[in-house]
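Q: My labmate handed me this sequence with no annotations at all. I'd like to see what the chain might look like in three dimensions before we decide whether it's worth expressing. Could you predict it?
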Amino acid sequence: MNKILSTLPYFDAAHMRKGSKATILAEIGLIDVTCPSTSVYAAVNQAKGKKIIFVVPYRQHHSPSNYQKEFWEKSVYKPREAFISEYLK
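A: Here is what I predict for the chain of 89 residues:
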């Protein structure tokens, strides 16, 4: 466990994105406790390329299930997939 904790700082997404000129598409769940929105914003803000952010207030870390799934697919997933398809043409 100590070995894992000692290497964890090397996998900081903010450092991995620093200076990147790539277009970044990020879906940020505001109730995600695995990747809190503040840490995702910190990572995205390090990049110099275009940033496209989907803020999803109710989204936890995993894909939603039950009653939220239909709403998520309609309001986030399908628009995001359409954007990616159009962007990659």
